[in-house]
């Protein structure tokens, strides 16, 4: 076995910068996905049949096609159709945000439906508008039920973020590829960033368990 990790030592700062690059676009994506997903979830539980059909179709498209295909369509398709060059960062945020929103919408929908229906009926009896009822009464209670699931979605996006390396976005994965190409040795940099991914996911998993434990204690 011919392994020599000393050669990647000068490149370690370069690869470590990929942590913030990766987490940066993942955090923005999950925020974007949350707000779009919340809107889609509210449409799904509404009485507007046509809008519900659109929301269900949207969800099925993003959940039923590969994420890497969606990324390629955004990065290469938009410039062809709209004559607008999309930066790797924007393509990554849009793709991951829209993809995440499809999953988040189902999480939020389930959380809203888990709230006692009597509260919605009481708000309606008091004449509180539907939008205010959802934003001020139902959604805050639903958030308590869906926070662990949202944390799992954040963890999933972090692991899947390596896909953006195919559009030359300088995330952790792409930086490992750059170092490998420079040294003509791929295993060591890949193993190094693989360890970083593992540590990141384990930290996020522990945070998720901590949040879940706190929520159970507050019940």
TrEMBL record:
<dbReference type="InterPro" id="IPR010065">
    <property type="entry name" value="AA_ABC_transptr_permease_3TM"/>
</dbReference>
<dbReference type="InterPro" id="IPR043429">
    <property type="entry name" value="ArtM/GltK/GlnP/TcyL/YhdX-like"/>
</dbReference>
<feature type="domain" description="ABC transmembrane type-1">
    <location>
        <begin position="19"/>
        <end position="208"/>
    </location>
</feature>
<dbReference type="GO" id="GO:0006865">
    <property type="term" value="P:amino acid transport"/>
</dbReference>
<keyword id="KW-1133">Transmembrane helix</keyword>
<protein>
    <submittedName>
        <fullName>Amino acid ABC transporter permease</fullName>
    </submittedName>
</protein>
<feature type="transmembrane region" description="Helical">
    <location>
        <begin position="20"/>
        <end position="43"/>
    </location>
</feature>
<keyword id="KW-0812">Transmembrane</keyword>
<keyword id="KW-1003">Cell membrane</keyword>
<dbReference type="GO" id="GO:0022857">
    <property type="term" value="F:transmembrane transporter activity"/>
</dbReference>
<keyword id="KW-0472">Membrane</keyword>
<keyword id="KW-0813">Transport</keyword>
<dbReference type="InterPro" id="IPR035906">
    <property type="entry name" value="MetI-like_sf"/>
</dbReference>
<feature type="transmembrane region" description="Helical">
    <location>
        <begin position="55"/>
        <end position="78"/>
    </location>
</feature>
<dbReference type="InterPro" id="IPR000515">
    <property type="entry name" value="MetI-like"/>
</dbReference>
<comment type="similarity">
    <text>Belongs to the binding-protein-dependent transport system permease family. HisMQ subfamily.</text>
</comment>
<keyword id="KW-0029">Amino-acid transport</keyword>
<feature type="transmembrane region" description="Helical">
    <location>
        <begin position="190"/>
        <end position="211"/>
    </location>
</feature>
<dbReference type="Pfam" id="PF00528">
    <property type="entry name" value="BPD_transp_1"/>
</dbReference>
<dbReference type="GO" id="GO:0043190">
    <property type="term" value="C:ATP-binding cassette (ABC) transporter complex"/>
</dbReference>
């Amino acid at each position: 076995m011919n392994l020599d990790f000393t050669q990647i030592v000068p490149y370690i700062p370069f690869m470590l910068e990929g942590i913030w690059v990766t987490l940066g676009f993942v955090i923005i994506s999950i925020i974007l996905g949350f707000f779009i997903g919340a809107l889609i979830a509210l449409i799904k539980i509404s009485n507007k049949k046509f809008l519900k059909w659109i929301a269900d179709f949207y969800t099925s498209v993003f959940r039923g096609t590969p994420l890497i295909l969606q990324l390629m369509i955004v990065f290469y398709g938009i410039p062809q159709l709209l004559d607008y060059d999309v930066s790797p960062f924007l393509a990554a945020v849009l793709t991951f945000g829209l993809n995440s929103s499809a999953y988040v919408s189902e999480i939020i929908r389930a959380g809203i439906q888990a709230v006692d229906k009597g509260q919605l009926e009481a708000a309606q009896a008091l004449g509180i508008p539907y939008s205010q009822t959802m934003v001020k009464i139902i959604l805050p209670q639903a958030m308590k039920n869906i926070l662990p699931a949202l944390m799992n979605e954040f963890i999933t996006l972090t692991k899947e973020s390596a896909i953006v390396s195919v559009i030359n976005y300088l995330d952790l994965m792409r930086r490992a590829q750059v170092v490998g190409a420079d040294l003509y040795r791929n295993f060591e940099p890949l193993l190094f960033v693989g360890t970083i991914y593992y540590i990141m996911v384990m930290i996020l998993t522990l945070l998720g368990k901590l949040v879940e434990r706190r929520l159970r204690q507050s019940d």
